[in-house]
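It is worth pausing here to work through a concrete case rather than discussing structure prediction in the abstract. The textbook approach is simple: state the sequence, then state the predicted structure, then interpret. We follow exactly that order.
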Amino acid sequence: MRTEAAKRVELVFSLFDVNGNGVIDSGDFDLMTGRVLEAAVASDAGAKEAIRASFRRYWTTLATELDANGDGVITVEEFRPFVLDPERFGPTITEFAQALSVLGDPDGDGLIERPLFMSLMTAIGFEETNIDALFDAFDPDAEDRITVATWAAGIEDYYAPDLAGIPGDRLVGAPAV
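Step two, the predicted structure:
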């Protein structure tokens, strides 16, 4: 696993541990789902249900694949070596990427405006400066929008263990020069 991917894993774990108790459990996913849905006020019921379902699947996949001792929580030690495994998590990540990116396009024009992108990513827990840098790395158009497809692909790239220098690396801090 590349160093950049390892940093992404650590950040994802900290974000998923919404209640800050040092482990990830189903309650963390309920909290995050609620925060994301609060930010998605303009989205339709179908988009909201899709993100709910993708968060549920994400938790189910983590619990099934990573809860080595069956205690209902995922420790960082259980999480770290496996979460970037495309064979185990690829379909779950694809579903999540599609659901989140569509949630960012409530008018259905295929474009995501910066303010909603910022709100959704803040609801997940990313830092505002890093979210801004990520949006800029996606090369927004003159009206400060990115495509749904660009964001979905960026989410999938974020979980790829062999990629570095991707837009998503901006979420862990300033890119290397």
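Step three, interpretation. The chain has a mean pLDDT of 91. Helices lie at 3-16, 26-39, 45-66, 76-79, 86-103, 114-124, 128-137, 148-158.
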